[in-house]
UniProtKB/TrEMBL annotation:
The keyword Cell membrane does not apply. This is Peptidase. The chain crosses the membrane at residues 12-35, 137-159, 188-209, 329-350. InterPro entries: PepSY-ass_TM (IPR005625). Keywords: Membrane, Transmembrane, Transmembrane helix. It comes from the Bacteria. Pfam families: PepSY_TM.
């Protein structure tokens, strides 16, 4: 048993030095990104905020979007309707430029600001360290290793030492020497935040390995005998694109339209149940059409199997929005914990080994 414990200690130390660095970067950038909607909307009121957006009908928003599409359709790559902090309509053009438009009148409001770009870059660092292609695999793999090995090894070491005295295992004695205080902070924060960190790490891995997660979740469908029901729109059904732009969906709000580009001859329509941030389940709908306006894919939350419904919740769980403001605050605080654990872990190693 002692030999096993020594192995666990070495694993915990090695992973703390390696994955701990990546977890610290992901945690800090994630904490900052939690408040992205509030910060960007406050800094870009002219581009993003409109007092009347909450009272505008879905038909009005679609009408504005369809008129913008009619007048500029050959140059448009994506159209984004009001969603989260953005209460206006934005268009990303094929040349990479982004412009914002009034949701009712269609009047141009301006280009993407530096603060919006800053948070986009922050998200890239959070998800891929800003490294093209392989960055997301580095971050995703470190999140899974953090979840499977770093947290579990830390919990094992804590349990082995404090299983007969839980109170001592969570208590921080403030009036102690630097070495003992450093150790108390490390083991107490580690145990207090083990659950939120585990949830954040596991859900974070989804954004890199979503196909594997979904395959694993399909076991739930097989276990409960859940079969995907027939969709309201069958593949191959012809639908006019302008009709979708001008006709509101009875249950979902149109969130974004992706137009064919880079050899991908597909029109993609994404819908959301609630346009703005709300606690609870994230309910979406997706529709894909080919160049002949034939349906090649259709899904909606209410018709999806349980595995797909669960997969749709990884984002609101990861960022804390599923639990409302309290969830977001918890994620914000938890994001600083990996850095604190990394620093206190290094100091503990220094105090115990070097000195």
């Amino acid at each position: 048993m002692k030999a096993f414990s020594n192995i666990v200690k070495k694993v915990h130390l090695f992973l703390g030095i390696t994955c701990g660095v990546l977890a610290s970067i992901s945690g800090l950038t994630g904490s900052m990104y939690v408040w992205q909607p509030e910060i960007t909307s406050a800094l870009n009121q002219r581009l993003l905020q409109r007092e009347s957006t909450n009272t505008l009908s879905e038909k009005t928003l679609l009408k504005t979007s369809s008129e913008l599409y009619r007048s500029q359709k050959d140059t448009i790559a994506k159209i984004f309707l009001p969603y989260r902090e953005q209460e206006t309509v934005s268009i990303i053009y094929k040349n990479g430029q982004t412009l914002y438009y009034h949701p009712e009148t269609g009047v141009p409001l301006g280009k993407k600001s530096a603060s919006i770009k800053l948070f986009e870059d922050l998200l890239k660092i959070h998800r891929s360290l800003g490294i093209p292609k392989i960055g997301k695999y580095i971050v995703g793999s470190s999140a899974i290793i953090f979840f499977l090995f770093l947290l579990t090894s830390g919990l094992f070491l804590w349990w082995k030492k404090y299983k007969s005295n839980f109170k001592k295992g969570i208590k921080i004695k403030w009036k102690r020497n630097r070495k003992r205080f450093n150790y108390d902070v490390h083991k107490s924060l580690g145990i207090f935040f083990s659950l939120p960190l585990a949830v954040m790490a596991f859900s974070g891995g989804y954004f890199t390995y979503n196909s594997y997660y979904k395959d694993g979740l399909k076991l739930i469908d097989g276990f409960i005998g859940n079969k995907q029901p027939e969709k309201k729109i069958e593949a191959g059904t012809g639908i006019d694109i302008l009709h979708l732009l001008e006709t509101p969906d009875n249950q979902y709000a149109l969130r974004a339209i992706y137009f064919p580009q880079d050899g991908n001859e597909v029109y993609q329509f994404r819908y959301i149940k609630n346009r703005f941030i709300n606690p609870g389940l994230r309910k979406t709908r997706e529709l894909k059409l080919d160049n002949n306006s034939n349906t090649i894919y259709s899904s909606s939350f209410n018709d999806d199997p349980v595995s797909e419904q669960i997969a749709a919740q990884f984002y609101p769980i990861h960022i804390g929005e599923m639990a409302g403001m309290l969830g977001r605050i918890l994620v914000f605080i938890s994001g600083f914990v990996p850095l604190i654990l990394f620093i206190t872990g290094l100091r503990f190693y220094y105090f115990r080994t070097v000195r």
